[in-house]
Amino acid sequence: EQLVLDLQSSRNEIEVLQKELQCQNQSVKQSEKNSEAMLMERDSVREELIAVQSRFDLEIKMAQEKYEDKIQEVEEELKRTKDNFKEAMENLEKINDDADKLEETLETTKGEKMRLEVD
Hints:
Radius of gyration: 51 Å
Largest sheet: none
Strand content: under 5%
Number of helices: 1
Number of strands: 0
């Protein structure tokens, strides 16, 4: 009879241990699912970050190209302005030369007029 009681007690302990083991297995399975979900979320966030970085890189590249084009336009305009200034200075020199020649001609003409008046 004691043996039967011991056997029953052992069976009860085994059942309790089996239930505990089942609970632990379920807990492990739930932890695995949670870990998988976290890994999937991490991968999703990583993909989003990569996409954001790609868009950011593209926007930077486009901005650089825009400003490089603008800089090139400004440099070309500066060159045209310098060329126009150089041409204007050359024209001014010609005008000054012509004015000097006219002044000489005027002096010569005045001198001849005065000489003709004296004669």
